[in-house]
Write a structure and sequence with these properties.
Mean pLDDT: 74
Number of helices: 3
Number of domains: 2
Number of strands: 4
Radius of gyration: 21 Å
Length: 191
């Protein structure tokens, strides 16, 4: 129980922007009793912890409402009606302004593509939006249904649907990627 409450506090702090909001949690906070941890953290000096891994962007500098809202299309079937072979993969997608979106809105934004986990047809190639100012491995792309948010599966009521899932979340050597939240693997499921 203690770890769950502590981690929820970390999630809140990660998104804070001002120096006063980024008060450091003492290194031994995980071992402190919960009742005293907040008081101890409030009295602790505030060291500079630096930006989170991967860097940050100032949200006030990102142009708003210049990329289209993604309305996920319907996934194509595989081998007949209501049959799908779906793979989960890691790829990059132009979520922020720039790249492929400059082709459509005629802007000159230069924000990088974001690494995402998504799914699409197992037989689809790596997204290639290089003809649209994107790049190889960057969605959205006309050659691939891999997208985030992912395409949808649609069917009629009371009609069976067969889905074959494949985990292709692997690195260049074929090793499975580590879980994004490894500390959750040791926690019992809670309702």
């Amino acid at each position: 129980m203690k770890r769950e409450l502590f981690l929820a506090g970390v999630i809140v702090l990660v998104g804070c922007r001002s120096a006063s909001d980024q008060a450091a949690i003492p290194p031994d906070a995980d071992a402190m009793p919960l009742a005293g941890a907040a008081a101890d953290a409030a009295d602790a000096p505030v060291p500079s912890s630096g930006p989170p891994p991967g860097g940050t962007l100032d949200p006030t500098t990102i142009p708003k409402y210049v990329t289209p809202l993604v309305i996920a299309p319907v996934l194509k079937t595989h081998g007949g009606a209501n049959r799908y072979s779906i793979a989960a993969r890691q790829f990059k997608q132009q979520i922020l302004p720039g790249g492929v979106w400059n082709t459509f809105n005629h802007r000159k934004d230069r924000y990088p593509a974001t690494t995402v986990w998504g799914y699409g047809p197992e037989s689809d190639p790596v997204p290639d939006s290089s003809g649209l100012e994107g790049g190889v491995g960057i969605a959205p792309a006309p050659n691939s249904q891999f997208n985030f948010p992912a395409y949808t599966i649609e069917t009629l009521a009371d009609v069976p649907v067969r889905v074959r899932w494949t985990n292709e979340l692997v690195d260049a050597s074929g090793n499975y990627l580590p879980h994004l939240l490894p500390y959750l693997l040791d926690q019992p499921a809670q309702l």
